[in-house]
Every structure is written in C-alpha cells, then in structure tokens.
Amino acid sequence: MSFKSGFVTIVGRPNVGKSTLLNRLAGEKIAIVSNKPQTTRNTIKTVITKEDFQMVFMDTPGIHKPKNKLGEFMVNVAESTLKEVDAVLFVIESTDVEVGGGDKYILEQLKKTNTPVFLIINKIDLVKKEQILSIISRFKDEMDFKGIIPISALNNEGIDIILDEIKKVLPEGPKYFPDDMLTDQPEKDIIAELIREKILLLVSDEIPHGIGVEVTSFKERRHSDIIDIQANIYCEKESHKGILIGKQGGMLKKIGTLAREEAEHLLDAKIFMELWVKVKPDWRNNKSMLRTLGYNK
Questions:
Q1: With the C-alpha atoms ordered 144, 59, 295, 5, is the resulting torsion angle positive or negative?
Q2: Considering the chain, what is the average pLDDT of its residues?
Q3: Which of 141, 215, 270, 281 is the most exposed place for a label (fewest CB within 10 A)?
Q4: Could you report the per-residue pLDDT of 51-74, keeping only the tens digit for each?
C-alpha cells in the first residue's frame, strides 16, 4: 500500500470559520476560535496521520487589507503559504450573496499558483439549499476549482469528504512528523493563544485587536504535577489596561480562570497561572515588540 503525505493550507477572509475547520479536521482544539475577525495571527500547523497518509494542515490569518505592521505580517504569512503546499482549502461562507472584494483579492492570489484549490463553502447550516447552489454557480465562474465542498464545520458535516478529496491529490511521500504529533506549536505559544482567546471572548470589540500575550515563564515544579505559568498581556492604552484588569481585578481573574481551566485540560496537569497587564502604545507597529511576540517572519 502506497503512503501519501503533503501540506495543505487553509485560506479565506477573516471570520469565515478557518480555525473551527482546523479543529474539526484535527479532532482536537488546536487553534483559538472567536466570532471576532483576525483571531489567528500566525500559521498553526496540525498533523493528521492515518494508516495510509499524513496531512499537515496550516491555518493562516484571514487575508485582509492591513492597517499596521502586525496586519502586514499576518497577510504575508497567509499569502506565503500558498507557494509551499500541495493543496489549498479556500474557505467562504454560505451566507455570502456575491463574490465580494475580499474574496476576489484572494482568488487573484490563488490564480497565480498551480496548486490544486478546493472551494470550501462553510456554515451551510445557516442557509437553504438553493442559496448554496447559487454560491457554487457564482464562484465557478471565477476559477476552475479542483473541487467544491459544502460543509458545516460547527456541526462536523462534510469534514470526511474534505479528507477524502485531499488524499486524491497528495503525492506519495514520507511521514514528516511522528504518528502521535498533533501540532508543532510549542506549549508556551498554545498557552499564550488560549489567554488571548479568553480576552477575545470576554472583552469588548475594540480592545482585543490591540492585545498581545507573552508567556514569560513556563516551569514544571520538581516532583510535582503542577506547572507554574506567568504571562504578560500587552495593550495599547491605559484605559484598555483598566478594562482588562476590571473592578478589583475581577476581569483579569476571570480571564485567568478560563485560560487555566482549559490549559489544565489540554496539558493534563495542575496549573498555577499569574497574569500581568502592561501598556505598550502602538506595539503593533513596533518591530521589537512584534519579534518578542513571535510575529517576525
């Protein structure tokens, strides 16, 4: 039996469900999920290994018009992966009534590559069948896709079809990663993202885009199953710092509790977590800060 392997990137506008799809494909939570756009800031690799194939999926930031150096980094990350993969999943929403400017821009980038592109129409649970057929018709006129797959990542519908279709286009190749490896993200990065996800969940719209999280210490106690984690939460304004800390530290405690509970489940260990909030004006345009937070491609 031949063994197939290769790399697959997931692209699309912000907030179309790329991270939810990645988590469904993996069968585990790898990428943070939020209903706020531009949640993913870096490439997250997820490895799926079966008896006859290994697929390495890359969730990328939503492709959008950047407003700062962090935004430029995110778009560069997303576009650069198109040249390095064996297949592309272009995710759109079933609720789109037309091919908008954002999708047209992504299609222009996809047309420059010879990589097989699959159109993934997500959130089909929200619309009637006629609307799905209408979207398929519109996008077919834009590009010759290798396949078009309607799915609901939220309801786990159509996920197996994606795997079957990708497998058909993968080349024969080796295992790039061990069988039991699910992601190449360091534990510190995963925890930083978990903390950021809880901020996205709990804090009002304007603040999360100016939030960066750095895990400064990650230590396992000797002869114990407890992990001590310390992290800085960076924001851009003093007023944002006040909101993040909350009355008598209530908001920061809530963020820490939710992040700690999920981290304990993820790492199967007891965790003692300390969080600090620091103001760094305009850090999203500061190259040194972007490097500190891992946005340095």
A1: negative
A2: 84
A3: 141
A4: 999 998 876 655 555 555 655 666
User: How far are the Cα atoms of 41, 111, 240 from residue 284, in angstroms, in the given order?
Assistant: 12, 31, 15
3-state secondary structure of 22: helix
Give 211-233 pLDDT, tens digit per residue. 889 999 999 888 888 999 999 99
Of 185, 191, 189, the C-alpha closest to 45 is: 185
Q: What is the rounded distance in angstroms from the CA atom of residue 193 to the CA atom of residue 113?
A: 31
pTM for the predicted model, two decimal places: 0.66
User: Which has the closest alpha carbon to 127: 167, 170, 97, 89?
Assistant: 97
Cβ pair 261, 29 in contact under 8 A = no
Residues 41/59, Cβ–Cβ less than 8 Å = no
- The answer to whether the beta carbons of residues 251 and 201 sit under 8 Å apart is no
The separation between the first and the last C-alpha atoms of the chain, rounded to the nearest angstrom, is 39
Please count the helices (runs of H) and the strands (runs of E) in the chain. Answer: 9, 9
CA atoms of 124 and 127, how far apart (whole Å): 6
Structural domains of the chain, ranges and CATH numbers in brackets: 4-169 (3.40.50.300), 187-292 (3.30.300.20)
DSSP letter, residue 94: T
CA-to-CA distance for 17 and 23, rounded, in angstroms?
10
Amino acid at 125: D
Find how far residue 101's CA is from the centre of its chain.
22
